[in-house]
Design goal:
This protein has 131 residues and is mostly helical. It contains 5 helices and 2 strands; from the N terminus they run H-E-H-E-H-H-H. The chain is 47% helix and 8% strand. Strands 1-2 form a two-stranded parallel ribbon.
């Protein structure tokens, strides 16, 4: 979200294997290159976010400010609504292979990413306390 709260952005990367702290750091580096000013991260309690190398990276990059969701609170996470929206587009699909699945997934997420209306609906659908 822009500092003036007028524009939302959606940044993502897909992986064909389980991600590690190295991939998390790669993504955070990407965010730091593309976004100015402080970057607020809303994270679930996943173990990937608590890796030592990730914590060290966060400690070294003060622009990154982490706020953790309470345990078992998907209703607070707007990301859950992004995925719900994307999955609706993918439902009843039958990809031929992993590459075809990746193409469909990227197309579905880009549809959400490119629509301010859909992004705001994901924020509004969450139970985040909102000013």
């Amino acid at each position: 979200m822009s500092p003036s709260r007028t524009r939302l952005g959606l940044y993502f990367r897909f992986h064909t294997t389980n991600i590690t702290g190295v991939e998390v750091i790669g993504f955070l580096r990407h965010l730091l290159r593309h976004l100015r000013g402080p970057v607020v991260l809303l994270w679930d309690g996943g173990t990937i976010h608590r890796r030592v190398i990730v914590r060290e990276f966060l400690h070294q990059h003060k622009r990154l400010r982490v706020h953790r969701f309470p345990a078992y609170a998907p209703e607070l996470n707007p990301d859950e609504f992004v995925w719900n929206n994307a999955k609706r587009t993918l439902s009843n699909g039958a990809p031929r292979d992993v590459a075809d699945l990746g193409y469909s997934l990227r197309r579905s997420i880009h549809r959400v990413r490119n629509s301010q209306r859909l992004l705001w609906s994901c924020i509004d659908a969450s139970d985040l306390p909102w000013p």
